[in-house]
Design goal:
Blueprint lengths: L10 H34 L2 H28 L2 H24 L5 H29 L5 H13 L1 H37 L10 H5 L4 H13 L2 H31 L4 H25 L5 H22 L3 H29 L5 H13 L5 H16 L7 H8 L5 H20 L4 H4 L1 H4 L3 H13 L1
Length: 452
């Protein structure tokens, strides 16, 4: 099914309209997520419980991504883009009904997070693959920068808005706002044209039943040593940084006596940094050597947002670090995604991108729980005054509640940085941009061969 309706908006302008709907939806969802995190932690005081909620989202999200990739390549990509908003709306509606009937409990969020994870399995590959058919290659970096800005921008004001509106309209009001925002996001997609890709040699090679096509993304990567090396680097980086992400929110709450204002301020600073970085990348387009942008950007992010962040003990350190770190992450995100969009044929990007995400995000299925358990049962007790690790790290982090989580962030943040920098040592990864040809160059050579 193709979509080239002249009455619908297209190109960079069409993409901007679609992303405006996503911005409104993400703003409402971020307000709800902030409120839920505070609500759950105040009732449980457990990093493990928060980690379990993340795992409930991540496991179905990752396990379904290969099938979602097939559907993105097979069917109308705009419909796939809507799938995330529709499932998120069903989840929010379920929570609203439970709240209004007085039956809402912590474990309900696990089920809803799983439902949202299923929907999000379609969201990222559909948007990433749509870019290559909506805008020219030279604008990939700008388009990815716009997406980064839209994903991060709402987070700048979401905590503040949630804190302001919660006392006025309560959590059920936030849920109504979220439902309205999701409806608006779907409406903007309806007026935008998202062309389907033309078939390529790679696409024909991957044709078959749904399981064969789901596996094609993995075989595509494994047949290309440079892509395989790239995926291995990202896998281990995500493995280590997952232990940092698991304790970021509880560490701040422990360090500040459950001060939601400080937590919100730190999150707003980080979101502002991501948004500013996305705005800059939307104009600049990113470094010409995309691999350098990816490895250096993410290395600097984890250095600032994990190693140095863990050494801090209050907002005077955390907020400035957050204001800087997100800019580096945006460079990493846009550079890595643009690199793959240039190298992978458009009609197989859904499968390849989801295979890459499953392989690189696989640690996220366990690190939220393992990271929370490591913090609750090992790191925190060991960093109490007189604990086994307090003599080694106490001079850096102190021994107050949250110190063990700080040490966890420092150690695993350093490991993530070292893994990323190792990418410059491996020739297959270091030279990926010259080893792998651009997909449009392959098509040009084939077309010229057929013409002669």
């Amino acid at each position: 099914m193709t979509e080239n309706n002249p009455k619908r908006l297209s190109g960079m302008f069409g993409l901007a309209i679609a992303l405006s709907g996503q911005a409104v939806s993400i703003l409402a969802s971020s307000m709800m997520e902030f409120s839920v995190s505070i609500w759950v932690f105040e009732r449980t005081g457990s990093a493990t419980v928060l980690g379990g909620m993340t795992t409930a989202f991540t496991v179905p999200f990752l396990l379904l991504t290969p099938i979602a990739g097939v559907m993105v390549d097979r069917y109308n990509r705009k419909l796939m883009m809507m799938a995330s908003d529709i499932t998120a709306g069903l989840g929010t509606l379920g929570l609203l009904i439970l709240y209004l009937t007085g039956d809402l409990q912590t474990w309900h969020f696990y089920i809803v997070n799983a439902l949202i994870g299923i929907g999000n399995a379609f969201h990222w590959p559909a948007y990433s693959a749509a870019i290559t058919t909506m805008v020219p290659k030279e604008h990939y970096g700008r388009a990815n920068g716009m997406i980064s800005f839209v994903e991060a921008g709402p987070g700048v004001v979401a905590p503040m808005l949630a804190g302001f509106f919660l006392p006025l309209i309560h959590i059920q009001g936030i849920m109504f706002v979220d439902l309205g925002a999701l409806a608006f996001a779907i409406a903007t997609l309806l007026i935008v044209s998202v062309p389907q890709p033309v078939r390529t040699v790679e696409g024909k090679e991957g044709e078959g039943n749904i399981f064969k096509e789901a596996l094609y993304g993995f075989t595509y990567i494994l047949k290309r040593p440079s892509l395989t090396g790239f995926v291995v680097i990202v896998f281990f980086s995500n493995l280590f940084c997952g232990f940092c992400n698991a304790v970021l929110t509880p560490m701040i709450l422990f360090r500040t006596g459950n001060n939601s204002l400080i937590l919100g301020s730190v999150q707003m600073a980080g979101a502002a940094s991501f948004a500013f970085g996305g705005l800059v990348l939307g104009i600049w387009g990113g470094p010409k050597r995309r691999l350098n942008g990816f490895l250096i950007g993410w290395s600097l992010f984890w250095l600032f947002n994990a190693v140095f962040f863990g050494m801090g003990r209050g907002p005077a350190v955390w907020i400035p670090l957050s204001l800087v770190a997100g800019i580096f992450a945006t460079v990493g995100v846009t550079s890595g995604q643009s690199l793959l969009q240039v190298k992978v044929a458009p009609d197989v990007q859904g499968r390849v991108f989801t295979a890459r995400r499953l392989l690189t995000w696989a640690p996220d299925m366990i690190t939220p729980l393992l990271g929370g358990m490591l913090a609750d049962y090992v790191m925190e007790p060991a960093m109490q005054s007189g604990g086994s690790l307090s003599y080694v790290f106490g001079w850096i982090t102190g021994t107050s509640p949250g110190a063990g989580m700080s040490v966890q962030m420092i150690v695993f943040g350093l490991l993530s940085v070292l893994v990323l920098l190792f990418g410059f040592i491996l020739p297959q990864v270091r030279n990926i941009e010259t080893i792998l040809p651009d997909h449009d160059e392959i098509k040009k050579v084939l077309d010229e061969g057929l013409a002669t």
